[in-house]
Structure formats: C-alpha cells, structure tokens
Amino acid sequence: MTVSLDALDDSIFRRMNDVDFPVADVLDGITAAQSAGFGPIKVNMVVKRGTNDHEIVPMARFFRD
Description:
By secondary structure, the chain is mainly α. The chain contains 3 helices and 2 strands, in the order βααβα. The chain has helices at residues 10-17, 23-35, 56-64, and strands at residues 2-4, 42-44. The protein is globular and about 35 Å long.
C-alpha cells in the first residue's frame, strides 16, 4: 500500500494538497491499514523547497519509530 503524505504539520499538509481534512486522518488511516494487516506500507513525500523541506527529517523520524 502506498500513502502520500507531504508533511506532518497540518497547515503545510492542507496547503500542499488543497484538502479540507487534517493530517491526523491520514495517520489514523495508516494505523488502521496496519491493524487490518496491510503491509508493507510505503509513505511517499513530495518535497517543495521552502514549503516542506524542513519536514523531511521529522517525517523520517516519525515513521522510523
């Protein structure tokens, strides 16, 4: 399964994806997919310089743990 998540910061996530739902919904969906036995789950992140490039390390840490 592949999930697109461009930021952990809610405002950046919403701005980059032009959506009206919180990043927490995406994270809850990933957790639900894991609980349902889906795996491996791949998280894709599109990086835009000056917009979310500072989110790379926090994102890697979040999903590593």
